[in-house]
Amino acid sequence: MSKKILVLAGDGIGPEIVAEAVKVLKALHTEGAIDVTLEEALVGGAAYDAYGDPLPEATLTAAKASDAVLLGAVGGPKWEPLHISKRPEKGLLGLRAGLGLFANLRPAVLYPQLAAASTLKPEIVSGLDIMIVRELTGDIYFGQPRGIETLPSGERRGINTMVYTESEVERICRVAFDIAMKRGKRVCSVDKANVLECTEMWREVAIKTAAEYPDIQLSHMYVDNAAMQLVRAPKQFDVMVTGNIFGDILSDCAAMLTGSIGMLPSASLNEHGQGMYEPIHGSAPDIAGRGVANPLATILSVSMMLRYSLNAPEAAARIDAAVSNVLDQGLRTADIMSEGMRQVGTAEMGDAVVAALSV
Fold first, then answer.
1. CA distances, 102 to each of 94, 98, 135, 261 (Å)
2. Nearest Cα to Cα of residue 323 among 174, 177, 171, 113
3. How does residue 259 score in pLDDT terms, banded at 50, 70 and 90?
4. Enzyme catalytic residues
5. Given 3.40.718.10, 3.80.30.20, 3.40.50.720, 3.30.390.50, which CATH number is that of 129-257?
6. Which of 9, 42, 149, 306 is the most exposed, fewest CB within 10 Å of its CB?
7. In this chain's numbering, which residues are marked as the site (Important for catalysis) (predicted)?
């Protein structure tokens, strides 16, 4: 039975990079490696321009009816003057909420061909392969009460609340443990249990849930130490699991260990395995329309889609190998260009990946 993929190109470089990822999907479909049906819709600034809404009802309905969503990027200076409820980013948040996406997967993988791009010494980062699993729906970003109030004295006070339920912690830990079972079977749960009761409970639930996974080696680390260890000795980590705000910060920190944000994909999953897949980089309006953006993170997002939502791990592995192959050939977009390599544009890089699929 054909799997439905909703393609949301978005804004800025989104349409250019998504076009290359679609090439890869179509190539795999044509040869019979996967059976997919693609549908397109608008989200973000493009949707606002067309319909006055960053997330039209038709887009959300199509997303709910799909097996997976492929997203380019949203946002740009053009839409910043809009009211916050109409900004492109609201479309992204609405998709996350509407699909019930609670688990964000952010791999930080260093390709050996790009080791020189990292700001850390090669011996520190070579062979790096971390998966950060971040909870998306709770924590201080969504907890109540929140807001800014004026005290009787006239002074203002800002309030945010860090809150998690046991069930929310348990389900994200299960995602991390299940992923780790297919990797190195090591999970580091990151908290601040020494000063935050919310994360003290997080640690208790992680330990309790881990009892059902006897093959998993569970460790715990305070978030400040985890940030330091990511820079000091990142290869000690296999899978990291943490809450929304800690995960937001640590995943960006881990991303830059690799030296190229243009290479890193992400996935956001719900309880049914349905997911939204996107590169972690932004819409880069400054280079939009020039055909120079790096499509590899978006192509690798398709690999994650095949692995986590479409149950096609063999096809996913072929995409990963094809990306490695084009890097071996010395092909580079501007953002990862180095001496002695051959600089190519967005479309040429996409074509090279498609060609490498059959190698």
1. 13, 11, 6, 23
2. 113
3. confident
4. 141, 192, 224, 248, 252
5. 3.40.718.10
6. 149
7. 141, 192
